[in-house]
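**Protein record**
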Amino acid sequence: MNFVNRISLIITPKLPMHQWIEIVAPDEAPSAQELMNESSCYLLDEPEQEETLDVLISQLISANYQKIWKNELSVWDEYLDDMPSVMNETEFKNWFNVTLSGLTFDLAQSPLLTASVEQ
């Protein structure tokens, strides 16, 4: 087992994401329950300073919500042709639940591979 020097933001879609998917990809849209049972994990640098959990999550959302949101949307709209008209931090919180995993471990046997995904 290897410790990974990253923290993880876990992003879980809420109902507005499902409603948007039903518009942009109606033939591929999962049920709301299926979608909300799925999460994405975003690895971030460990914070340099100790913060309360609420403050840390707020800081991480503020710094990363645009990249995360565009990435989540691009799964269903590859060219981001139908992005929501309002994509601010408040709306991000309406569209996604965010939790933090402070310790990240790699239990896999094979080497970790990375690939750059630009948005």
